UniProtKB/TrEMBL annotation:
InterPro entries the record matches: Cupin_2, RmlC-like_jellyroll, RmlC_Cupin_sf
Residues of the Cupin type-2 domain: 69-132
Protein name per its UniProtKB record: Cupin domain-containing protein
Length: 321
């Protein structure tokens, strides 16, 4: 594969296209400065303005959220796994219908596998613009977002209505629901009762991995962070591995399905049959199935990288209580 062909499978951090109207809370004060990025797959954006960088199916979606300090993402749930790692900044993740069941603060490089079927949100509590990278299970990411009822009500008060077709309509732009489309119904009390409210003590030990723990464990070989045999044992439909300078291997290898490389620290040189490219933190590279390749640090200093590949497990529920 030529370098020109492979360049179409690399999304550079500086080339990311933000969408500021991706979700129902785009006008809600406190959440109205978010930027959503869809890197691989269609994601779960509710806006026709969302740019998709790479549409090739991988068995999962890759996205990102960029937010200034004190900006939050409203409480929602997914039907498939949702994994985040912090690329830049300091972030608070919280969960429960009103965000009060539990919380955890993540620093740069930390990763969280948020259980499905639980309302979750997050906010940048750092002092500068922050970025978190996201992995969503399944090619269709579970069919969209399920919002806590108060989020939908708040959005309507600020001009945004979500149709039962999963699309947003902005009354500030003169838009209205088309004929045959009704507002997205609010979850009933009976339905809400089915959403768990676990404490931090229930969630953090089995669903959060710290950067420096991963750095220590990825020596001398890469460590599986999320997977059937991972630090966080789960089968969300994909596997997340982590490598650093000490576990990078120059041996060429391939996978029987597309995989994704996402540097966290340092520059990484990816070599393949036909060329090479250098990745920086925030870049995302899709490696085609059956392509012989390797990834090695390109410079001295700290180097770390996440590797994601789909598994044969269903991208289903991960919370067992």
């Amino acid at each position: 594969m030529t370098p020109q062909d492979m360049e179409t499978r690399i999304v550079r951090y500086g080339d990311l296209h933000p969408c500021k109207t991706a979700f129902i809370d785009a006008h809600t004060p406190g959440s109205d400065q978010k930027e959503n990025f869809t890197i691989i797959g269609g994601g779960v954006s509710e806006s026709p303005d969302q740019h998709v960088h790479i549409a090739i199916p991988h068995g999962f979606n890759i996205g990102a959220a960029g937010q200034p300090p004190k900006c939050r993402n409203s409480l929602h749930s997914h039907r498939t796994a949702e994994v985040f790692f912090v690329l830049k900044g300091r972030w608070r993740f919280f969960w429960g219908q009103h965000g009060t069941a539990g919380e955890v603060v993540l620093e740069e490089g930390d990763i969280i596998n948020i259980p499905t079927g639980i309302f979750r949100g997050f906010e940048n509590i750092g002092t500068d613009y922050g970025m978190i990278m996201a992995i969503l299970g399944g090619d269709d990411a579970g069919g969209g977002v399920i919002w806590a009822p108060h989020v939908i009500v708040d959005a309507q008060e600020h001009g945004l209505v979500l149709g039962d077709n999963g699309k947003l309509y902005d009354s500030k732009k003169g838009q209205r629901l088309p004929d045959g489309v009704n507002p997205m119904p609010l979850l009933t009390p009976q339905e809400l009762a089915g959403y768990p409210e676990p404490s931090a003590a229930d969630v953090v030990p089995g669903y959060v991995a710290r950067y420096w723990d991963m750095m220590a464990m990825a020596d001398p070989a890469p460590v599986v962070v999320i997977g059937e045999t991972g630090m966080l044992r789960d089968k969300p439909g994909f596997e997340v591995a982590f490598m650093n300078r000490n576990s990078a291997d120059e041996a060429m290898h391939s996978h029987d399905r597309p995989s994704v490389l996402m540097p966290m620290r340092g520059h990484w040189k990816v070599n393949w049959d036909g060329g090479s490219a250098t990745l920086a933190p925030g870049d995302t590279m899709s490696v085609p199935a059956d392509l012989m390749h390797n990834a090695i640090p390109a410079m001295t200093g700290e180097a770390s990288l996440f590797h994601i590949i789909a598994t044969d497990d269903a991208a289903g529920a991960t919370w067992t209580g």
